Amino acid sequence: MDGVLIINKPAGMTSHDVVACVRRLTGEKSVGHLGTLDPMATGVLPLVLGRFTRLAQFYNEADKRYEGTIRFGWATDTYDAEGTPTGPPQWIHLTLDRLREFAHRFTGQIEQLPPPFSAKKVAGIPAYRLARKGQPVELKPKLVEVKELEILSFDGRQARFKAWVSSGTYLRSLAHDLGQLAGTGAHLAELERTAVREFTVEEAHGLEEIDLKSATELGSMTSDNEYYVKSLDKLFIHPRLVLPEFPAVTAPPESAAKLRHGGAVNLPEFSKASIVRVFAGQRELLAIARRVAGTLFQPKVVLSG
Question: What is the 3-state secondary structure (H, E, C) of the chain?
Answer without folding.
Answer: CCEEEEEEECCCCCHHHHHHHHHHHHCCCCEEECCCCCCCCEEEEEEEEHHHHHHHHHHCCCCEEEEEEEEECCCECCCECCCCECCCCCCCCCCHHHHHHHHHCCCEEEEECCCCCCCCEECCEEHHHHHHCCCCCCCCCEEEEEEEEEEEEECCCEEEEEEEECCCCCHHHHHHHHHHHHCCCEEEEEEEEEEECCEEHHHCECHHHHHHHHHHHHCCCCCCCHHHHHHHHHHCCCHHHCCCCCCEEECCHHHHHHHHCCCCEECHHHCCCCEEEEEECCCEEEEEEEEEECCEEEEEEECCC
